[in-house]
Amino acid sequence: MGSPAAEHAAALAEEMSDAHFGDARLSKRQTKLVQKLAQAPDKSFPSLLSDSELEAAYRFFGNDAVTPAAILAPHVRATLARMEAEPVVLAIHDTTTLSFRSDGQRQGLGRLRSSGQTFFAHFTLAVSGDGTRRPLGVLDLSTHVRDDGTTDNEHDRWGEQVERVAVLGAAPHDVVHVMDREGDDYGLFAQLLSAGHRFVIRLAHNRLVEADALGAEAKLEQALAHVQAVAVREVALSPRPAGNRSPQQKRLHPPRAGRLAKLALGSTRVTLRRPRSQPRELPATLSLRVVRVWEIEPPPGEAPVEWVLLTSEPVESVEQLTQLVDWYRARWMVEELFKALKTGCAYEKRQIEDLHGLRNVLALFAPIAWQLLLLRSEARRAPEQPATAVLTPTQLEVLRVFARKPLPENATARDAFLAIAGLGGHLRRNGEPGWQTLGRGYEQLLTLVQGWSAAREVGKI
């Protein structure tokens, strides 16, 4: 696997240059757009592009021959190549809502409550399963619109995305599919088991299970009540502010303060009964393992953390049990990808007039958001590794000259990360940098590198 230095703007443009639209001019246009946008991911198109470039960009996004799949295909191929060096890869699935203000009617989008428009994007992010949680790239992306506010058949999309990932050629025994509560669907469980896929899914429903060998029915929570803790771990829970999230999101994920939680882990095997609402073509029962994770002694006034995880994986040992819980916890990487997309890349501020164009813009920004995620996660994961692990020699040279505070001689990845955020306006006394300041700082660094390289070519440096 290459060093993270290879993941910056020039390399990303090269990675994305192998798109096939049936017209070489469109492939060249995509490469030029990626080069521009990767250097300034949070800037608007008009402020970043010249008039002629802006017109060409709008034509590109609106071209019927240009599709999200074609745009993303080169990045997917590069992601698969990065996966080859990993013994286990987590394919993390999740859906995000993309919302746009009602400052213009965009064709093909759904309505968002009383005002605004929206559509939904379902991502599959590949993440290393070795405990480092290194983001490897986006494997799949699909979108849909709720025309009437219903969610019928949305569970089908989860299974469809799993099968598209399988078709890419990744070995099923090397990929573990990870999903949150939206993936709790009996038909999906049956599909995954039938195809031999590995998975970890957090349950949302108190499902029917067989209570004994005679097939008597019981509820899952009754079976879990007898699960004994075989391990206890301390886990740092991040704060969850109320923000402007929807009532449904606040109900599913209540606001909380950050804290160090003591979690108990235990497991059991259950036989799920097919819900009466499900087609009779599905198996009448499914035998699976369930892992229960629950908080011991939560702070007064705070709801205790509890996760119920359904899995195909063996959990006979403490090591297997803790690894499985860590795989589920890696799911938060896809939420960080969404933040990089929405804040670091300012995707929801893009002035594109129809769904076709917005879907194409989304596919172009997805690898850029991954690039920002990689930069931040590597600086956090191994802060003491040399700065050269996350920056090219030229980038580090330029950062030494223009950083607000002098970099140490043996600068670390953490030093470089904070210096880049400082270029974007971040002050160290304000805590960890956010996606917006990181995006701006990264943009500023790449702009300075361009000028530095140009000056060097003419002999002024």
From TrEMBL:
GO terms for molecular function: DNA binding; transposase activity. SUPFAM superfamilies: Ribonuclease H-like (SSF53098). NCBIfam families: transpos_IS4_3 (NF033590). Residues 168-362 form the Transposase IS4-like domain. Residues 10-66 form the Transposase Tn5-like N-terminal domain. It comes from Sorangium cellulosum (strain So ce56) (Polyangium cellulosum (strain So ce56)). This is Transposase, IS4 family. InterPro entries: RNaseH-like_sf, TN5-like_N_sf, Tn5_transposase, Tn5p-like, Transposase_11, Transposase_Tn5-like_C, Transposase_Tn5-like_N. One of its GO terms (biological process) is DNA transposition.
